[in-house]
Write a structure and sequence with these properties.
The complex is a heterodimer of chains A (265) and B (347). By secondary structure, chain A is mainly α. Chain A is 81% helix and 0% strand. The longest helix of chain A has 36 residues, at 56-91. The chains are: A mainly alpha (265), B mainly alpha (347).
Chain lengths: 265, 347
């Protein structure tokens, strides 16, 4: 009975927070700025379609660019909202009436994470239409890979939002934003470069193991795979990647909840 | 003054955090397992796809705004190789790596398809000599447009002239001027640091080091290639390149072992009949051929006298031919060796 009541409370609390946050997404300029940027691609892609594409590789390149931009901008949207969600509430002191409801602190954190995720998914969906529809037709692409790419990118948005919320409990917004953008754009390469230089010793292996705890968004990005016409991942591989995203997201989220309780506001 | 002090963490959050931490602890193992699952060639390693992308008109329009770091690095290396002159994308980095005037280069930078014994060993040395200097390959020159227009095609008049004056530019009708590829080495290093799976960067970097012809550079090249092999255990091209470098170092037995390993790895990856496709390109086939050829010819170099050497090479060739069907160049090599054996016996 108690569990059921709590569940309803959690749902309604998260629902309300998400709704409020989503309205904020629509009010803010960032979303429209991203749509405008994506519009530049849209115009370019339409011009290319009118002029004509000379070969499949070029078409695949344009499609890759469109999908990469839409997913990146979607991530950027989720990131912006995740890193600002809690600090902005504290700065503007609007957090106090919210917590005075009374609302459990973890509801607040989960609500903010969910809202950032939904904002990211919403932005990605809108931008994806702009990035995908005008792109020239490419033959020989695997629909299964595209579906996997969509699922993993959605999971990637959840992971980024959770990480953003977690870091926002600890770090200032600007630092958090820079760290997350570096992780998102170059984390995979940096980690690979560092791992590549580690010696084959026990210490090297231990460091290698620890480095792999750094969130890696690269393994959740299948866009290149899709536009190169590579078949879908095997079920085990796909499940492992999904598990990875879920495990890291849950850890970040619960750790953020824990730290938020331990923090004086 | 704070309005809300820190509070006690609810039990449910503690339990959830413990569970999530437990899941998180397995993350490195999951990543390891996932890395082992993903076998098909990724975009970066798909050389043919990269070639197509770089030669497309859109790639020209977008210039260096690429989604792929590796592509950007290759464009940079090409531009440096041409002394800063920006040509239309036409990258065949392998040909460039060997400074040109050869009809076709394998991914290792060695001349492929030369099945007979004399041309193989001679061409390697010749290619080395050609690529070691600031060669200007005016023979076999193919005209490639520059990004900055020529005076005849430039509607901008004085502005165009100004751009040609202030930016590196060379008349595309003139042969390209290639600067020493050694200056490109930091880029290849960067490429391999950015992506340790970039087999081509390892090969071309090692090739340029090899062209320096000094013991130190050759040792560095071996080290570089071995680092590549550490990250790409099945890349038979790296074993092939390692064999070439060790051969130049005079470590012929080690070189022979490297060529044999290259053959073994190539055998595991080559589809039946050497069918060219996404996972087995013409470059792979040519490198496999080079590995088979060198594996046989090293037997000859290791033998005490020429007749025994040719016999040993023929023996090895017979073994290799059984494992690599539909490789006509091996037949030609066999015929050439048999002819040489006859000549040697008559003497």
């Amino acid at each position: 009975m108690t569990g059921s009541t709590q569940s309803v409370t959690l749902n309604s609390a998260v629902g309300l927070l998400t709704r409020a946050h989503f309205l904020e997404v629509l009010r803010r300029r960032e979303f429209y700025a991203l749509v405008l940027l994506m519009g530049l691609y849209l115009v370019g892609a339409l011009v290319i379609r009118i002029v004509g594409v000379e070969d499949a590789a070029t078409a695949a390149f344009v499609l890759n660019l469109g999908l990469s931009l839409s997913f990146f901008f979607g991530h950027l949207m989720a990131l912006l909202f995740a890193v600002r969600a809690i600090p902005d509430e504290i700065e503007s002191r609007t957090i106090y009436p919210v917590l005075a409801k009374p609302l459990a602190r973890h509801y607040f954190v989960v609500g903010k994470w969910f809202a950032a995720w939904v904002a990211g998914v919403f932005a990605t969906s809108v931008l994806l239409l702009m990035g995908w529809l005008p792109a020239p037709h490419v033959s020989g692409l695997a629909a299964g890979t595209f579906i996997q790419a969509l699922v993993l990118q959605t999971a990637s948005l959840a992971l980024l939002s959770a990480l953003g919320v977690l870091l926002s409990v600890h770090w200032p917004k600007s630092v958090n934003m820079v760290v997350l953008i570096v992780l998102l754009l170059a984390g995979h390469r940096i980690v690979a470069a560092v791992r590549g230089q580690l010696p084959e010793t026990l210490v090297g292996k231990c460091i290698d193991w620890l480095i792999r705890y750094i969130p890696d968004f690269g393994i959740l990005n299948l866009i290149d795979r899709y536009t190169d016409g590579i078949p879908p991942l095997g079920i085990v591989d796909f499940s492992l990647r999904l598990f990875y995203a879920v495990a890291v997201s849950l850890f970040c989220l619960f750790w953020a909840c824990y730290r938020f309780y331990r923090r004086a506001l | 003054m704070t309005q809300h002090a820190q509070t006690t963490v609810p039990r449910i959050i503690r339990i959830a955090l413990c569970g999530a931490t437990l899941l998180f602890a397995f993350v490195p193992a999951v990543l390891d397992f996932a890395a082992r699952q993903d076998t098909p060639a990724a975009r970066l390693s798909d050389f043919a796809a990269q070639q197509r992308r770089n030669s497309s008109a859109i790639a020209t329009i977008l210039g260096e705004f690429r989604t792929n770091l590796s592509d950007m690095l290759f464009i940079k290396t090409e531009r440096y190789l041409h002394g800063g002159v920006a040509y239309m994308p036409h990258i065949d980095a392998d040909e460039l790596a060997a400074s040109g005037n050869i009809a076709h280069m394998t991914q290792t930078g060695e001349k492929a398809g030369q099945s007979d014994e004399t041309t193989t060993s001679v061409s390697i040395a010749a290619n080395d000599r050609k690529s070691s200097a600031t060669a200007e390959h005016d023979d076999h020159h193919e005209e490639v447009s520059t990004l900055i227009r020529t005076p005849e095609n430039d509607f901008r008049g004085v502005l165009g002239k100004l751009e040609r004056e202030v930016k590196p530019w060379r008349d595309p009708r003139l042969p390209h001027e290639h600067i020493g590829g050694v200056e490109l080495l930091p880029w290849y290093r960067l490429a391999t640091l950015a992506d340790p799976k970039n087999v081509r960067a390892y090969m071309i970097g090692a090739w340029w080091l090899k062209t320096l012809h000094t013991q130190q550079a050759l040792r560095e090249a071996v080290k570089f290639i071995e680092e590549g092999l550490h990250h790409n255990k099945t890349a038979f091209q790296l074993e092939l390149m390692r064999g070439y470098i060790l051969r130049e170092l005079g470590e012929k037995e080690e070189a022979a072992k490297a060529f044999d390993r290259a053959v073994e790895l190539a055998k595991q990856q080559r589809p039946a009949g050497g069918l060219i496709g996404r996972n087995w390109t013409i470059y792979n086939e040519e490198d496999a051929l080079a590995a088979c050829t060198m594996s046989a010819l090293m037997r000859r170099e290791l033998a005490a006298n020429d007749t025994d050497g040719i016999k040993a090479a023929l023996e090895r060739l017979a073994m290799v031919k059984q494992e690599f069907d539909n490789m006509p160049a091996l037949e030609r090599l066999e015929r050439s060796l048999r002819a040489q054996l006859e000549t040697a016996s008559q003497k």
